[in-house]
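Milestone M4 deliverable, item 7.
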Amino acid sequence: MVVTNELALLNVNSLRTTLGNARAAALVRKYSGQLETAELSSRFFAEPVHGNTFDSFANVFRDAAEPRQLESFLQSSDRQLTCWGNGRVNYQRSSHELLLEVASAHGQRDLMTRFLREFDAEPSASLDSLAIVALLFRQAGAFLQNASWSCRWNRRTNRALIWMICMHRILPIVFLLIGFCDGLVWAASPQRNIVFILIDDLGWSDAGCYGSTFHETPHIDELAARGVRFTQAYAACPVCSPTRASILTGRHPVRLQITDWIPGNTVPADARHRFLQIEDRNELPLEEITLAEALRGVGYQTFFAGKWHLGGAGYLPTDQGFEINLGGADYGQPPGGYYAPWKNPYLKERRDGEYLTERLTEESISFLKNRDPERPFLLYLSHYDVHTPLHEAAGHFSRFQKKRQQLGPAPAAIAERRGLSSGRQENARYASMLAAVDDSVGRIMSELKSLGLLETTTVIFTSDNGGLCTLKSPGPTSNLPLRSGKGWLYEGGIRVPLLMVSPEVTQSGSVVETPVLSTDFFPTILDLISQPTAVSEIADGQSFAGALRGQAISQTRPLVWHYPHYHGSEWTPGAALREGDWKLIEFYEYGDAELYELGSDPGERHNLAAEMPEKLAELRGKLRAWQTDMGAAMPQPNGNWRGDGLGKKPGASE
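Output delivered:
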């Protein structure tokens, strides 16, 4: 694979100028897979690099539906690349002809013609972008001509690129890569904006629109009245970091190797723990394609404020496609608390006693006011609330304190294996924190209305896992009628509130009962903004945009949760699978499993495992097959473990 140094340097220098060294390096790593350091040089393009061999791709090309057509246009791109490298002779003519040929092969000639008209207005940027595309084609051509071509391809780094090349998804890649170069942004849907509001640890039944009578959430309830309320929305994991990663990538936590909160509990190999600690990733890999990167690639302004918890320096929001980061760091809660000084290096305090939740809201509103009005935007507001430490939110606490006094004695705690669950929502501090979040939602919606953006904006409101209900002693909220809470694979730990307000909504206040998962946000958003779904085609999610339009959606896959870790909620390693209304939960520490029919028993009170052993065995088989196929890390035995009532449930079978 030989490309002239002149062309290589042209593209590298352009990327460095427009994106900066670090971002350019990450981009080249992501889409080419041959650069292992931040140093950019023409050697990356000019010299073949040897390493792993991917003979398996030979079979993909042999079985391709249209191998001759693919080979034809790849060879054509090779010829044009040679032309460009020798002084860029007849550049505009040859490059346009090449892209039109590619587009025609995929039935998109008219679309490409329109794009080329836009490119002609920025010839220098066009040169850089089309040359990058040509380099991509040349790499694909090398695979075609010699399926055992060796290169330092990292399986995770280039999963998206290789998969789409093999599956003839060349044109969407062209559009995605072109979008990363300044001056070449485009949008098929006029000014569709996205506001994503993610609350930390908000329980399914915490808001008034989901049944709470103790908490007060008028602005959140207004979202439900204006848009669509989902009753069976699920987080991909019962703890935060894995779910946050799944939202941003559309990929299951198991694929990402982020299956616990970062960095997770430290579990000693002692007599109390049946299994050894499983080590997983402590950051979202730069090689993953994030929602922010996909949207920024097609012209979006990308803004992040609040909790990140997917890696520190080098893996921050600004390393993952967000142009602005205010408050996002590696930790899961404010290190100095919610009132200044909160000790967050990415969001400096303006005054003593400043409230973090209000500041994040103010920064979000400032972005809305000062953004470029000619470009659509992604505003990702990720509140640290209502995560601990519990505190008294000014202006709200006294009201809920009085309300709590009127409730009378607390009900008895609910036993949950080793833990205890709260039997009622009654915590005044927690309620005041939620009220502050509700204020934030109200202010964001009011600003969108004031700026005339409601008709062109999709607003998504959800949580990263269930409410904190089960601990050694009862937690600060209750998820009843659902069972248990954060950290657990009962419904209370994984079912979350989901509200959406969007121009597609055909009936305000409608309810969707079909299960959806946090992996589904990525493809749904791409669907709503009418952009190519090249990235979502390799994701684990599926779009539920049709539900906003009043269309029936179906769940075509089982939902699986793999949480092989110990958690402070007293959860022990296990996994769960839902297929239709049937749900299986496995408890590895105890050596048993439970079976529920959620249609008639959403609170998971009637364990059918003993009554329906065949259904239990069927679902356990499907769960095991899924774990094997995904390469899920399974708990490994701890030789120091002693049953003696500490881990093994009395009478449990192995």
